[in-house]
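Hi there. Long-time user, first ticket. I'm pasting a complex I've been working with (about 602 residues overall). I'd like to know whether the download I got is complete or cut off, because the file seemed smaller than I expected. Thanks.
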Amino acid sequence: MSKKVPQEQYEKTISYKFRQWLNGSKDPYLDTVEMKPQVPFCETESERLQREEENQQLAKKVYDLEHNAEIRLFGKMYKVFSVIFCLFLVTMLLIGVSYLPTFGHPENPANNEVSERYIEKGLQETGAVNIVTGMILDYRAFDTLGESHVLFIATCTVLILLRLDKKELQKSNEANDRIYEPKNDVILQTAARILVPPIFIFGIYIILAGHLGPGGGFSGGAVIGAGLILYLNAFGFEKTEKFFTAKTYRRLSFGALACYSLAKSYSFYTGANHIESIIPLGTPGAILSSGLILLLNICVGIVVAGTMYTFYVMFRKGGY
Amino acid sequence: MGKGIEGLEQAYEILFTAILIFLAVLALLCLLRAVIGPKTADRIVAVNMLGTMVIVMIAVLTLMLQEDYLADICVIYAMISFLAVIVLTKVYMGVYLERKKIAEMSGETKSGEYTAGDEPGKCDGNDKAEK
Amino acid sequence: MEAIEWIKFLAGALLLLLGTTIFIFEMIGVFRFKYVLNRMHAAAMGDTLGIGACILGLIIMNGMNLTSLKLFVVIIFLWFSSPVSSHLIARLEVTTDEEQDKHYRRLILSQVEESCERNNCEEKNRKQESREQSNCEEKCRVQAAEKEEVK
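Hi, the file is complete. Here it is re-exported in full:
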């Protein structure tokens, strides 16, 4: 057991300063560059009145249309010239576009041997009837890994900027702009009770049938997110918190992203060489076919659904 | 559609193309209503109508091109347009009522008191500290 | 077999054209009515019925298929969600209306009763008195008759 040191001696040590820097309570500019300690901003009544008076006088002079012929002329010419400028831009862009090669020409740079290989041997090598899904989740699964990480980073950014702690949430209840919104609409609640389960089932269907038809993780996740938003709008935040809290989102998104990374991050080490997967490609057209694509679809779907719901909730309330 | 009976195939094509053109013209008129409509409810109604006509157009396309996955898109589009109406009305009602409340409060306190966001106690203390 | 195909085509085409006619009526209504709630009513009715007719026509043309089932799901979803949408839009309109006295007439029950009483006071009182008198006369006659019987 170490000796307990008196408080003043402790405040001179390095560990205390380190702790302060971690907390954010140490102001790095206070003792080095000469600055006064910060005081919260407030205005007395006279200052406020003076500021508003000055603003009004300035506005009167600037927007004085009667004595200022130049401003009137500018106003008229502005409209004409803006239309001319827009038309000019449009024509320049259209002329640029007309230089592109015709659609479907065999000598286009897009029609090279890569797309031929994907189309001819796609079904054989990936086992997915939907060639697009086979491409983004098997041939180029590494790129989709990056995409899922981008979604995750976007959610992290929004959480950093917009999330309020519990204390701030309680404080902000006065400035809460959701007090005046209509709540507990009986008609909407009845409709939501009937409609939300089919929406979830439809979203799950789209995710699972990603390799058999158009769909996949991204669109299915968006539909599930929309279903969650509908439930939230009908029933309010308290009821939704019973099954979707911050913990749920954390565990789901972390679990899904970790799963995807484990499956496909070997490309960091092997470069462009593909590792043959142990999972056999079943009969094309069955659900349990095409190797890892089903699992990856589910992971991507979970991440996208959580992302959509988190964005909506952060922008509305600042907390789950 | 039509399965080889010649007159029938042409009839199907003509019918579908005519209906598509018709619905496209109606959709443009919906846009006109959205631009003109003096109130907010007009615009929300116009957007809803536009969504419904697009759903019918996509359903006609599933039959014309004989692609089965476009029917899924119809269901998704119906869901999303319903959700849009719900969120728009809720948010706009909240904004309107909040502005009305603020106008009432600032209308009452015109003698120079603080409006709802200021905290009168803090300022005096800080003035004294600075002086 | 040919006849069945032609019948399918004709029935489906009829319903489809009926649906587009309903859409035309809806557009005429939305442009001609003078007040927001009337226009919203035209839009909601036209949407629901028009989509029902159009998609039923398409289902008949397609035969019994998985695609037809999905289109039927569209009809069911829209018939559930369209009334709720119009309810919410009407609620929005009623709360954000600035000229409420011009558009609506508010009836509060207690006030209605008061005004009724003030207007029809004298007549009502007279009628009530005459009714009471007539009732009283009848009762008296009945009682007298009973007393006579008892006696």
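A couple of notes from our side: Residues 6-108 of chain B form one domain. Chain B touches chain A at residues 68-69, 72, 75-76, 79-80, 82-83, 86-87, 90-91, 93-95, 97-98, 101, 112, 116-117, 119, 122-123, 126-127, 129-130 (CB under 8 Å).
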